[in-house]
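Researcher: I'd like a structural prediction for the single chain below. Treat it as a standalone chain; there are no partners to consider.
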Amino acid sequence: MQRCNECGSIDLGKECAERTGECLWVCGECGSIWRDGEDLAGSASAETNSYAPPPGGAGLAEFTPVPVPPHGRSAYPKAVRAIAELVSTGFYDPFMLGMPAAEAAALTGHEAEEGWTSEEGPVRVRAAAGQVAEIAIEPPGGPVPMPGDLPPGADLSLVNVPLAEEAVGKAGGSCEKTGEFMGKVRLDFRTPDTAGELHFVRYRLIRAHVRPAG
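Model: Treating it as a single chain, here is the predicted structure.
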């Protein structure tokens, strides 16, 4: 499944017609349709209630869903869990607020001195009093690469604003949209233990920042 560019639902699946070999991408929520090969990030070219097949093409009833492989289903729940952990405890994969700066240095591959780590990267930490005081994450568009032999972190590239708001709510906190420009939304949040900002462009999370709530 993929996220629908029209309604934002994670219900965009591929369907193919055996007779003609045609394939469509169809949103089960809003009925938007893209023909295979069209840009799924662009506007839909048809809808289920008005779909007209090309000459000799298959009717909509001939299309059947293509099964989604396990790896194609796992990214979204994993991303939601990562957001929930991030906003409730300040924890992201092997990084956690309050962990010793020396341990963070070993994970990031460079010194975590009193201030932000010197190297820009997908995961940055700020140390204070010898501990990790803030975490900033800027996903490069896929699973965040981790140094050494650590597995990639959770994929945060396709989490939408409502899901992030839900995760904040489950963590016992509150949030508000504090800016929107050219498709970018910033969501400021506060929970009993942590506070921070989440930045989105449409449905892609491009930056997360978390710090103690005090």
